[in-house]
Amino acid sequence: MNKPKTIWIINQYASTPATGMGGRHFYLAKELAKQGHQVYLIASSYTHLLRSPLEITDSYFIEELDGISFVWVKMPQYEDAHDKKRVLNWFIFAWRLLKLPKVIKDKPDVVLASSPAPFVFLGAQRLAKKFHARLVFEVRDIWPLTLIELGGYSSKHPFIRLMQWVEDKAYRESDTVLSNLPNAVRHMESRGMKPEKFSWIPNGFDTEEFSNTEPLSEETLQALPQDKFIVGYTGTLGVANALENFIDAAELLKKNDKIAFVLVGKGKEKKTLQTQVNRLKLKNVTFIDSIRKSQVQSMLEKFDACFIGWKKEAIYRYGIAPNKLPEYMLSATPIIHAYSGACDFVKEAEAGISVPAENPQAIAEAILALKQMSFEEISQLGQNGRNHALENYDYTKLAEKLSGILLD
């Protein structure tokens, strides 16, 4: 056990379970606090990811929650993820970090700054220098490379060049670099980072949260198909999830009246997917509105197989870090993983069937293969996933690893 320290974790997009999804830093902070550390989690009072943003009147507000001090930095609101005001907020947030010494009474031993926008590093570095604290930079999405490869931006664009300068500076000047992407170290080395600085901390699950699973509502239960082999998806219905291939697989299997497809959640692509289902006149696809996070495991218990898909993109050579994968595995439900990148943990854990991304025929064949398996074979795949999740994705264990890295 390390001597208790004061840790400042800065993630502009962090949330609590009441304002958003909780998520990586909330749960890691909670576990670090259980270890005896004084933890401050610093986030923006408004982002497009918050479900119920707090309305604060002062420039800074500290909320004491589950043993951690959650510091909300008051920020301007904007329309959506593509609003130019969101970009302006990246700079405002980094600037407002500099006033934290007047707000937080405990000086940090460690300052951890988390991406995706790298500008947060500039404010965090000033704070770390002021207090002679250890400086840690965390990458959860490789920017600006993702914007170049997926967003189509030129690497010569002045703003991309500025972002690249900050990213390279962060790799060079941080004491430690973290990522939830297992292969990110390859990219970081190419940008000048010494590989020994790198540590991988995956996304995980909160044991306490999953031990307090709530049942589904009667309305949701009634919406689920009955007496079918259900292949389900839960989470954001977004572009990155490539769910149009899931619907195309449903079209290929539409004559099999024993198989049903269920999508639970909301997102930018929901209307497009519903239009696709209507155009194909599919009767085997059911959409269910978002459910509470505490009900997700109850929903997964209703599935015979879980689905997760991706686009076929080169950026995935650095791996992936979906929040839903630990949830799926923990449910002990076999997984169909449509993925063509590096570090396929479904395949490594033997937790289901992996198929190439963007291949509806392969998805359909995987569904038929699972349906034809014996109860024992299906159960073994599910148990393999659960064992992998318990060993690798428990936030209690991940926080122990993080503590060792931060305070080494």
TrEMBL record:
<feature type="domain" description="Glycosyl transferase family 1">
    <location>
        <begin position="223"/>
        <end position="387"/>
    </location>
</feature>
<dbReference type="InterPro" id="IPR001296">
    <property type="entry name" value="Glyco_trans_1"/>
</dbReference>
<dbReference type="Pfam" id="PF13439">
    <property type="entry name" value="Glyco_transf_4"/>
</dbReference>
<dbReference type="InterPro" id="IPR028098">
    <property type="entry name" value="Glyco_trans_4-like_N"/>
</dbReference>
<dbReference type="InterPro" id="IPR050194">
    <property type="entry name" value="Glycosyltransferase_grp1"/>
</dbReference>
<feature type="domain" description="Glycosyltransferase subfamily 4-like N-terminal">
    <location>
        <begin position="26"/>
        <end position="209"/>
    </location>
</feature>
<protein>
    <submittedName>
        <fullName>Glycosyltransferase family 4 protein</fullName>
    </submittedName>
</protein>
<dbReference type="Pfam" id="PF00534">
    <property type="entry name" value="Glycos_transf_1"/>
</dbReference>
